[in-house]
Amino acid sequence: MPELPEVETIARALQPDLIGKTILSAEVRWARTLATPSLIQFKKQIVGQKILDVSRRAKYLILNLEDYNLLIHLRMSGDLMIREGKIIPEKHDRLLLNLSDHHYLAFNDTRKFGRVWLTSQPEEILGKLGPEPFGKVFTAQWLFENLHARKRSLKPLLLDQTFIAGLGNIYTDECLHIANLHPLASSNNVTKEQAAALHKAIRAVLKEGIRRNGASIDWVYRGGEFQNYFRVYGRDGQPCSVCGTTIQKLTVGQRGTHICPTCQPMR
DNA sequence: AGGGTAACCCGGACGC
DNA sequence: TGCGTCCGGGTTACCC
Q1: Within this chain, do residues A73 and A116 fall inside the same structural domain, yes or no?
Q2: Out of A21, A57, A59, A155, which one is annotated catalytic?
Q3: What CATH number did the domain enclosing A246 receive?
Q4: Which pTM does this prediction carry?
Q5: Chain-centroid distance, C-alpha A264
Q6: How do residues A108-138 score in pLDDT, each as one tens digit?
Q7: What range does the domain containing A147 cover?
């Protein structure tokens, strides 16, 4: 489900339910959900930890505990929910954390791609990530310089979390359309003006996603409404809202990619 | 360095 | 209705 806006929405929603609560017990129902450490170590370390804060870095949710950070990556189909009362596992629940207020946190993940890390060294995992799209480092000038430092197709580069952190398939297609850039255009050929437009588009589309509480696609995720405002994503065969040209779907780096061939010429 | 591909998983959609 | 195939919000390893 989640790209940056969806993770941001989940983090905000969970804050009042988690901050200040203590983790009383943990139930792991799919062992591979734990990226680290071992099951025995995990339970030993997490039980008794109070949740001090809930935040986000790129697509990672961060539960700041007293002695550790619990990093949660939802990957394709993960979701987090608070449920009341005694633990009653539902289908696809992978990790359950019993809280001190008669609620529990359920990590539900149909496709089993999601992972959690319990670590006192979160930078080992988060340190490889590129800048936050809303952070100080990410300026139009930074983008221009770093696009030219590489020679890669724009879309795979924007999806590369070590280049810029937080964009996924949907928001990448959307921001390339807004910036009138073709996903296969080479990064080192982007002009200063195009880089500025792309920078603006990235921030605008992520902001819009957050404002609409993320996008709800297929059966995964709930609550968001950004899917009703997609410009190109999933709209192949329909007219471009800017120029009326039929939106096309192509494959770029194994990913379904949606463009308006008029607005995003390959030059 | 950059690209292509397969893999990890499951369920929904679609074609026959 | 049933069965086979394709598809995918993400990321990594590996190969050329």
Answers
A1: yes
A2: A59
A3: 1.10.8.50
A4: 0.96
A5: 25
A6: 999 999 999 999 999 999 999 999 999 999 9
A7: 140-259
